[in-house]
Amino acid sequence: MLTTLSKSLMAGASASTLLAGLNRGFMTAKLPQSGTFSSSFAVSSFPRFHSDGFVTTTLTDEDFAPVFDDIRERLAASRVNLFMKGTAQAPKCGYSKMAAQLLSYYGVPFDSHDVIENPALWEGIKRFAKWPTIPQLYVDGELLGGTDVIAQMHSAGELRDLFVEKGLMPEDNPFGKTSTDQKEESV
After folding, report:
1. Distance (Å, rounded) from C-alpha 12 to C-alpha 110?
2. In the chain, which ranges are continuous DSSP H helix?
3. Among 60, 68, 124, 145, which residue has the least CB neighbours within 10 Å?
4. Side-by-side strand order, sheet with 28-30
5. What is the reported pLDDT for 55?
6. By the 8 A CB rule, do 96 and 164 touch?
7. pLDDT tens, 121-138?
8. pLDDT band at 47; cut points 50, 70, 90
9. Looking at the predicted structure, is the pLDDT value of residue 82 above 90?
């Protein structure tokens, strides 16, 4: 962001214009249309050049149409998808690690998608789901939620029930059964 601000100031935008834009949740800056300007994915990937010479980095869902198409393809390619920071084998945040470990605990095959390697995917998946955090777990194309939701479902036995119901794990799989479930089976 400092690079964006300093380049904008050098291009002639006033500090008050920049700060006003930041306070409104977006940034506008007067920049030459021919210059290269990149410091964040939003600016470098989706610049909006206006006739008055301003560049706006406020993005709409229309700007994300290609990213949404990519997300839909990923969701169609696998029944269980985890959009996370890092990969299942090398998570790059604790929440992503916990989500991947919960899925691995059940032995459910899943595809992990590293949003750190693809900033457009990082912002796009949040907009696609209207869910502000990463990781995000999808089962059969439907968002279940983030790590907090997955952990609650796991604790309540609901995650296991969902995987069994969807045919993603056999009912006789002991993983995820609560002690109450196991006692009822032994009676």
Report:
1. 49
2. 2-10, 15-23, 41-45, 65-77, 94-106, 119-129, 147-156, 158-165, 179-186
3. 60
4. 28-30, 54-56, 48-49
5. 55
6. no
7. 999 999 999 999 999 999
8. low
9. yes
Asked if residue 74 has pLDDT above 90, the reply is yes
Assess contact for 137 and 88: CB atoms under 8 A: no
What is the pLDDT at residue 171? Answer: 87
Of 45, 46, 52, 47, the residue nearest 30 (C-alpha): 52
26: Cα within 13 Å, side-chain hemisphere? 13
Q: Identify the residue whose tokens are 């992990």.
A: 112
**Long-range contacts from 2-9, C-beta under 8 angstroms, 24+ separation:** 3/39, 4/29, 4/37, 4/39, 4/40, 4/43, 7/31, 7/37, 7/39
Sheet (strand 136-139) strand order: 111-114, 80-84, 136-139, 142-145
Domains of the chain as residue ranges with CATH = 2-59 (no CATH), 64-181 (3.40.30.10)
- Decide: helix, strand or coil at residue 49: strand
